[in-house]
Amino acid sequence: MKHFKLVFALIVLTSLTTIAQNTLQQNSSQRILSVDKKGITLGGYAQIDYNEYDGSKAGKLDVHRMVLLFGYKFNDKVSFLTEVELEHVKEVYVEQAFLKYQARENFNVLAGLMLVPMGIINEYHEPTTYYGVERPNVDKYIVPTTWRELGIGVSGTVNSASLKYQAYIFNGFKSYADGEGVLRGSDGLRKGRQKGAESVISNANLSAKLDYYGIPGLRLGVSGYFGKTQTDETELVGSQVGVAMLGFDARYRLKNFQFRGQYISTTLNDTEEYNTLTGKDLGSKMDGLYAEVAYDFPLKGVEVLTPFIRYENYNTHSETDGTLVQNSSYDRDEIIFGLNWKVANGAAFKADYQIANNAVSGSDATKTFNAGVAVWF
Fold first, then answer.
1. What are phi and psi of 9, to 5 degrees?
2. pLDDT digits (tens, 9 = 90+) for 199-213
3. How many CB atoms lie within 10 A of CB 299?
4. 274-309: pLDDT as tens digits
5. Measured by CB atoms within 10 angstroms of the end CB, which terminus of the chain is less buried, N or C?
6. Which positions carry the signal peptide feature in this UniProt record (predicted)?
7. For residue 220, what are the β-bridge partners?
């Protein structure tokens, strides 16, 4: 299975490059910071969901996310952006808060609370930019979207080579606090996100991404994240684990067809010592991939109806160390298919059906109907 997933990912990505959206698509923060006028610029996005599991007696309605962004341009070189998110109506988070200084054309210095550039969705997670009511689960369990941490770094473009670059130093995931382990096998690194809230930093972590946009309609990305987890009890053997994450992604548009694919692999060191100390079941390797195809059917005006289908496979126990046995329920795959009805630029209705399985022998598939509203402005 491991070899199949790697070969599958390579086929997806290389096939996209051979079959030659704006390849420099902007997310919310980039769009706001690119505004020429000085002063305040506002933006936002929202996601409202309906989820119903097959066989359940009732569905669930949720204002999943309501997000407001505020940008302030001091002058031609200096800007500040903050993003405030309400989740499930009652949870409030600051998702981004950083200062950007344009040192020279195509070279920027950024510092503050920023998104870690890994894969596609962590940077481009506005609900009208992806298909399906919910975000891909590879970008939940392998890349713990929305993944943001405090740090400093640089970004820019090399237009002569059709490259966009980003490189940052961040604080890392918290792994051990108050005598307990934070990380676990079922969702990997997700619980360790510190999100800029009184973050502990015991080691600096390096994050970088390179995007290529030299072929019309095609964008290729390679991402890396390397370092150690964080704790204020570094003297304890097993309180930290090493993290090495690599990602490859591709997006391509050919007339009405759209394709995207992603492969993420994470290696964790010292998990045997960590599990011994904490009693957790953290795996030593996690990986995941997805491939998606969609087709646009233009309607009247700007309206577009887009059917899509996506396959995902993700495993937070690809490998384990010591005596820890791999948990087959952590090896999961999904097929999602549905419709996206764009009714305006930045507004859409969505519906999809999700069939999820795991590698446990004899286990039944979980089937879910999802519907929702997505806006971005």
1. -65, -45
2. 999 999 999 999 999
3. 12
4. 999 999 999 999 999 999 999 999 999 999 999 999
5. N
6. 1-20
7. 212, 250
